[in-house]
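Example 3.2
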Amino acid sequence: MVEKVIGSQLLQSTPREVRSSIYKINPIILNRWSPRSMTDEKLSYEELMSLFEAARWAPSSANSQPWRFIYATRDTEEWNTLFNLLVEGNKRWAKNAAVLIVVVSKKEFEYKGKVTPSVTHQFDTGAAWENLALEASSRGLYSLTLIR
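Structure, written as tokens:
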């Protein structure tokens, strides 16, 4: 299980070095990074749904879209449920995030009327997460991936 943390500003400074790529790439990709800590600034419902919309447009095998996002915003009862999934060491990075998002994927999908094992569900779900992270970056938001 992987938890994703979305925040809108940093407690710590921005990257110390100017990033440069060997070959020219889109600045959205080059400048996307994961801060160590988040502020407690809120994220609007519309901003959050736009991130999920970007994820929805990710490619997937047979357009199966095996990803599911379980989320909780900071001031909800569900926040503690997701927050307590984290190991103690990761809680310090996530405690001030605007949103916690758990990303899961379905291991089977229906294709031509048959339930079929999906050999690409993790790959497809990773593509959806990357779309979400890049959309966040394009809006000046930061994302952080924490493994439990």
